[in-house]
Design a protein that fits this description.
The protein has helices at residues 4-7, 10-20; strands at residues 43-47, 51-56, 66-71, 75-77, 83-88. With 93 residues, it is α+β, with helices and mostly antiparallel strands. The strands form two sheets. It has a three-stranded mixed sheet with strand order 1-5-4, with no helix packed on it. Strands 2-3 form a two-stranded antiparallel sheet. The structure holds zinc ion. Zinc ion binds next to loops. GO terms for molecular function: metal ion binding.
Length: 93
């Protein structure tokens, strides 16, 4: 009888392997802490897909979330001026 990892394939297997390595939020569903967010040092967003939609709460008083679609390798600027870059989930940054 295979264990949970032995029976898992595809993205489910990748998720279990990341959790085994200590990354308990491999899909970044818990939210991320913003970094510098400049054009030269954008906030890095990881993804296993070629595109990812993110939500930016542009300031502390914002009552809405601004959604931005990122493409792999692309750096995009939110209307608030914060830069985000989408990189492969396994990439070294
Ligand atoms: Zn923003």
């Amino acid at each position: 009888m295979p264990d949970e990892l032995g029976g898992a394939v595809g993205i489910e297997r990748w998720e279990l392997l990341q959790k085994a390595k200590g990354d308990m939020d491999p899909f970044l569903l818990d939210g991320i802490k913003l970094t510098h967010g400049t054009k030269d040092k954008p906030t890095i967003i990881r993804s296993v897909c070629d595109t990812r939609t993110i939500g930016c709460v542009c300031d502390d008083d914002a009552t809405t979330v601004r959604y931005i679609e990122l493409c792999m390798g692309e750096t995009r600027r939110c209307q608030c001026g914060h830069f985000f870059k989408l990189v492969d989930a396994d990439a070294e940054v």
